Amino acid sequence: MGRTLLSDKSRESNQKPANVGDWLKAAQTNVLFEATSLNVQTGQLAVDHIRAALQHGAHAITANKGPIVHAYRELRDLAAKQGKRFLFESTVMDGVPVFSLFHELPAIHLQGFHGILNSTTNVILSEMENGLSFDESLKKAQALGVAETDATHDIDGWDAAVKTAALITVLMDVPVRLEDIHREGIRELTTQAVRNGRRDGWPFKLVCRAQRVGDGVKASVMPEKVLSSSPMGKITGTSSYIYFETDIFPGLAITEENPGLYATAYGMLADFVRAVRD
User: Fold this and answer.
1) 149-193 pLDDT tens trace
2) d(Cα 23, Cα 15) in Å, to the nearest integer?
3) Alpha-carbon span 99 to 87, nearest angstrom
4) What confidence tens digit (pLDDT) does each residue in 217-231 have?
5) How far apart are CA 72 and CA 65, in angstroms?
6) Tens digits of residue pLDDT in 104-144
7) Which positions are annotated as active-site residues?
8) Model pTM?
9) Share of the chain above pLDDT 90, in %
């Protein structure tokens, strides 16, 4: 990894760890913050980083959704075995306490949920309603720092699908593969269709849905027309929304209004406080 370490006497060390495990030992790490880019197919290298941290005896905190979808149970059980925390509040809705909320609601049975969880597509659709083309709207989202240079994961629904899978895996305790989630992006929507939808009171939104069916869960991510006066119809810009259906609370909703870029960092900070406080 080529990173220079300092000794306790603040003098330069010649240690050059060859892998994550060696780096963790050399740094005497107590907490690992994992923030690599999402790998939709495998969740790597984030899975290996978190596994190494827990094996080392450190708490692991991540903003990467991949490990939740591809290795949640393994990493959860490893953390429990090591007496450490594996936390990931920033993976869905930035730092809003979605996962920790259900940690504070024992014995709740989640039946399903729906919502708007991808801010990039929401910004693009909002700008298309104002008359911009798809490409112009994407460039504006990129200029705002909301969209990546390559926004394929957002536009084609992958980011929303991974978030949906993470919520199903953790909160509904049902392992789900990404290929089991019906996924459609917003690439095929035209400015005219989007503007007409808003004019008619039924704007387009990229909606995530999950519902228990027998022992499994049926899930989808796709553009839908929603009533403009409904909670989802009012979600614009970088805002997000999720509605939970539970056995105790028939409807429990969370709305995040236009968060700043600091929100994800706050989620990791909150997880850090939870880890070291317990």
Assistant:
1) 889 999 999 999 999 999 999 999 999 999 999 999 999 999 999
2) 9
3) 9
4) 999 999 999 999 999
5) 10
6) 998 999 999 999 999 999 999 999 999 999 999 999 999 88
7) 163
8) 0.90
9) 80
Q: Which amino acid type is present at position 67? A: P
DSSP collapsed to 3 states, the chain = CCCCCECCCCCECCCCCCCHHHHHHHHCCCEEEECCCCCCCCCCCHHHHHHHHHHHCCEEEECCCHHHHHHHHHHHHHHHHHCCCEECHHHCCCCCCCHHHHHCCCCCCEEEEEEECCHHHHHHHHHHHCCCCHHHHHHHHHHCCCCCCCCHHHHCCHHHHHHHHHHHHHHCCCCCCHHHCEECCCCCCCHHHHHHHHHCCCCEEEEEEEEEECCEEEEEEEEEECCCCCCHHHCCCCCEEEEEEECCCCCEEEEECCCCCCHHHHHHHHHHHHHHHC
